[in-house]
């Protein structure tokens, strides 16, 4: 009877409702909003950004300065354009060859260092070494980027001088276009490398102004000294 009375204590209207909690499966997982990936290593871009920015600035400054120097003593537009075109071809070839040799030298040095480390580590991890090799700079890529970038930069002052007959206006336009292009190239390099944009633009602009001013001033000085061209 006691056992029967104990069983009767259970409420008559009591109903057990099973409660289940959803598991974190692929079917019921809530969609997550993708966040911006800040884990990208921008140092991987360093090699080709350096080659491209250096080539563009070098082409722009070299050809613009060359044309400004020639324009300081000669007003003939054909002479300026011929000098600028010669500077474009020679500079692009020089940049490509120089960049290829320098980067290939760096490549050989790093490969030799990796081999020495493998010998010290009794073989080391081959997969890790292969991964390191893939991150090494490409000489051909750097050379091509430098040549193309140099040509792009050099075309700017050439186009600026090609359609203007007045000598003083032509000189002013070349200097103005070169300045604008320097700011653009500096901004592109800063944007790709995620570096301060204003600082980069000011740096390349001041450097370009100095190169053009020095070339113009020295050539004008030599021309005024009595040397005939």
UniProtKB/TrEMBL annotation:
The chain crosses the membrane at residues 51-73, 79-105, 142-165, 171-192, 204-223. Keywords: Ion transport, Iron, Iron transport, Membrane, Transmembrane, Transmembrane helix, Transport, Vacuole. This is Vacuolar iron transporter. It catalyses: Fe(2+)(in) = Fe(2+)(out). It is a multi-pass membrane protein. Its main location: membrane. One of its GO terms (biological process) is intracellular manganese ion homeostasis. The keyword Hydrolase does not apply. One of its GO terms (cellular component) is vacuolar membrane. One of its GO terms (molecular function) is iron ion transmembrane transporter activity. Belongs to the CCC1 family. InterPro entries: Ccc1_fam. It holds the Pfam family VIT1. Vacuolar Fe(2+) uptake transporter. It comes from the Eukaryota. It is found in: Vacuole membrane. The keyword Cell inner membrane does not apply. It comes from Rosa chinensis (China rose).
């Amino acid at each position: 009877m006691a056992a029967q009375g104990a069983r009767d204590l259970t409420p008559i209207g009591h109903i057990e409702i099973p409660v289940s909690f959803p598991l974190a499966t692929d079917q019921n997982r809530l969609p997550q909003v993708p966040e911006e990936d800040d884990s990208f290593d921008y140092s991987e871009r360093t090699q080709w950004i350096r080659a491209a920015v250096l080539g563009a600035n070098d082409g722009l400054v070299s050809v613009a300065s060359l044309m400004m120097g020639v324009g300081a003593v000669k007003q003939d537009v054909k002479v300026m354009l011929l000098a600028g075109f010669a500077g474009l071809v020679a500079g692009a070839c020089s940049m490509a060859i120089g960049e290829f040799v320098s980067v290939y030298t760096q490549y050989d040095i790093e490969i030799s260092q990796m081999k020495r480390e493998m010998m010290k580590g009794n073989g080391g991890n081959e997969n890790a070494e292969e991964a390191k090799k893939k991150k090494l700079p490409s000489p051909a890529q750097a050379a091509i980027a430098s040549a193309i970038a140099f040509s792009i930069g050099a075309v700017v002052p050439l186009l600026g001088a090609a359609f203007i007959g007045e000598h003083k206006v032509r000189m002013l336009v070349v200097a103005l276009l070169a300045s604008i292009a320097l700011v653009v190239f500096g901004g592109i390099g800063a944007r790709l490398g995620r570096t301060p944009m204003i600082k980069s633009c000011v740096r390349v602009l001041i450097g370009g102004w100095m190169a053009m001013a020095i070339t113009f001033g020295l050539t004008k000085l030599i021309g005024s000294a009595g040397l005939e061209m």
